[in-house]
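Q: Structure tokens for this one, please.
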Amino acid sequence: MSSTENNNHPITVITGGGGALCGAIAEGLARNGSYIVLLDIDEKAMHARVESIETSGGRASYYICDITNEKSVIDIEKTITNEIGPPDHLINGAGGNDKRATTDSEFLEVSDIESTSTQTLFDIDIDNFKRVFEINYHGTFIPSQVFSKGMARRGGGSIVNISSMAAFTPLTKVVAYSSAKAAVVNLTKWLSVHLSKVGIRVNSIAPGFFMTEQLRFMHVDQETGQYTPRAQKVVDHTPMQRYGNPDELLGAVKWLLSDEAGFVTGAVIPIDGGFSSFAI
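A: Here is the predicted structure, written as tokens:
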């Protein structure tokens, strides 16, 4: 589809578009009139999401892309611009964690120091740590660098990065992911200043715990249907006393991309049911 056909419809690129949270955002933005372009390495998930968007009357395409590979992103940006049109918006949603870059317990005990059965800080392999950082941080920086160049040439655009409430207060056990998401917040603020004079706004949302199918498998006992002890801690620490639904991210994203947020840049919006505000 040519850019001429999309004159009145913003083109929104979403990395991590095969995932549950970004998929929900994609469907919501499509209902709002955006032409959606999904980037991910999971072709099956993207294909299903595009079918869902088109069945509902929206328009979308997808491209397989490794967002940690600069050449891959550069090539995809050129392809999107030529085949669909120049992107107006970028949502950096690709990310994730790796259990190998976490610890087994919240606190290090003296008895754990020489343990061979418990993964502690001392057992985390640096390559696994780097990979989590690469997906979450480099996977935000590279698309921002590549897609913002075209936006700058055209005199405007909007970028929304997906960080996490873990950026404010690191989650116990989850060291690499928490660190990377904190870096995404810092990058958001840096980019918002650097790109301000070429008309590009850069903001971030910081989701709390959202009940996706992947998280349901880890946080809900598959036999009893009850929350696991860690999941119960999440709910107890969330003033709204529940997990979020993916659709509840949409309002903030729509606003940040819209002209109504024209004086908003460098902002980080928590969407966490009050998790990051609660102490005791």
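A few notes: Residues 19 and 173 are 23 Å apart (CA to CA). The longest strand covers residues 200-207.
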